[in-house]
Design brief:
This protein is of the alpha/beta class and 417 residues long. It contains 13 helices and 15 strands. The strands form four sheets. The chain has a seven-stranded mixed sheet with strand order 1-9-8-5-4-2-3, sandwiched between helices. A three-stranded antiparallel sheet has the order 7-6-13, with no helix packed on it. Strands 12-14-15 form a three-stranded antiparallel sheet. The relative contact order is 0.16. The mean pLDDT is 94.
Length: 417
């Protein structure tokens, strides 16, 4: 039976993602991926007690330096969440009505919304059949003279095929935005996601591999010119007056100006406590990812001989950090599908399995806002039989064994019916 240490203590029933403990499940899908360490807790308390500024201070500068070093980026900026990091990227890409942006059809809605808000047309990229991420060949097929940006999502913890996508972008003169929300620490031949494209966007939401008190994000930037615009765009257009004023208070303490003609600034800043926590969490990120990888490999080995179950193909040199554990079930050989399998896993074995990320073009939001048109046959065929097992950093051996036995027994039941 699952170990009680795996169980979050608070029952939550109102999370549209399917996360959060729900009464009656032996293995829930937690709303937070792991508990905080004592070092993480202590640094937040230290900031609460001692930091003079609660935002835009020394801890922000340290966190950004740590992010830049860890990712291998030219520039890194903290933000209050990944959605607003993506919003900053969409502004810096200078897209608007008449432009086209290619975005994976299979991703979280926050990947697409900031670009849709610019008035640009969203063109949905189909899925690669083996890797379950945006297909570079389909991306290239959908490039037109109006295409300006390719947005790539490193979904489920798996890096997208960045060498191929960057080659396509370079050939066609396009900008590339990496959505790295689910793949912090993922890499290809040692080069980390967020350092390939023109911009990289990260999330430190509570459901991610590392969190900064439930929310948080970051933007990486390649060019020096774009990086110089981020502080003002992120924080009201605020900046100091030039030094050397006769009276430091005349005309007032600080200036407010524009960074990009016609673009209003925002407030996407993040608190000092979150930044301090982020610096500590980065030191532990690789260990966390190693734990998730080890768990995933146990499942993949245990399910390798089960007919109908399949997993993402991981190319050599790719570090898949398993933000979640998604499988595909094809029971057509014995007349069954994903829903038949989940009926047993959920109702009989009490596993809180979920189906994630309906293709975005099927959601009312995108259909009502003119982004329902699509040509993604691989994704449409694949999605109906995909699902996620309950996932948490450091599931006990007992819980893992219980999940393995439940999946094996459920498939055996379906085959015998």
């Amino acid at each position: 039976m699952p170990n009680e240490q795996d169980q979050p203590k608070t029952v939550k029933t109102d999370d549209a993602s399917g996360r959060g403990t729900v009464a009656g499940f032996k293995v829930p899908f937690p709303g937070r991926m792991q508990p905080y360490t004592e070092e993480e807790i202590n640094v937040v308390v230290e900031v609460m007690r001692n930091a003079e500024a609660q935002t835009q201070g020394a801890y922000l500068r340290q966190f950004e330096a740590d992010l830049k070093a860890y990712i291998g980026a030219n520039h890194a900026f903290a933000a209050n969440n990944c959605t607003n990091a993506l919003t900053l990227a969409s502004i810096l890409c200078r897209v608007g009505p008449g432009d086209e942006v290619i975005i994976p059809g299979y991703t979280f809605c926050a990947t697409a919304i900031p670009f849709g808000k610019t008035g640009a047309k969203i063109v949905w990229a189909d899925m690669d059949r083996d890797g379950w991420l945006a297909d570079p060949n389909d991306i290239e097929r959908k490039i037109t003279e109006r295409t300006k940006v390719i947005v790539v999502t490193h979904l489920l913890g798996m890096p997208a095929n960045m060498p191929a996508i960057m080659a396509i972008a370079e050939e066609h003169g396009l900008l590339v935005v990496e959505d790295c929300a689910q793949c912090p620490g993922g890499s290809i031949d040692g080069k980390k996601v967020g350092s390939f494209g023109d911009f990289g966007c990260f999330s430190f939401h509570g459901a991610k591999n590392k969190t900064t008190l439930g929310e948080g994000g970051a933007l990486t930037v390649r060019s020096d010119e774009d990086a110089a615009l981020v502080p003002g765009l992120r924080h009201y257009g605020a900046r100091p007056y030039p030094p050397g004023r006769e009276r430091y208070w005349v005309p007032c303490m600080g200036n407010v100006d524009i960074d990009i003609e016609g673009v209003w600034p925002n407030n996407f800043t993040v608190g000092e406590a979150q930044c301090a926590l982020g610096s500590v969490a980065l030191k532990d990120l690789d260990r966390t990812n190693d734990t998730l990888i080890a768990q995933a490999m146990k499942y993949r080995a245990a399910f390798a001989d089960i007919p109908g179950l399949s997993f993402q193909k991981i190319p050599e040199g790719y570090r898949h950090v398993f933000h979640t554990f998604v499988m595909h079930f094809d029971g057509s050989a014995f007349g069954k599908d994903r829903n038949d399998l989940l009926d047993i896993l959920i109702n009989e074995y009490k596993l809180r399995c979920i189906a994630q990320y309906y293709p975005l073009y099927h959601y009312p939001l995108f259909q009502k806002l003119g982004a329902g048109e699509h040509a993604c046959p691989v994704l449409d065929e694949w999605w109906n039989n995909s699902f996620s097992l309950p996932w948490y950093v450091g599931h006990s051996d007992e819980t893992i064994d219980y999940v393995i036995s439940a999946v094996r027994a459920a498939v055996a039941t379906l085959k015998s019916e």
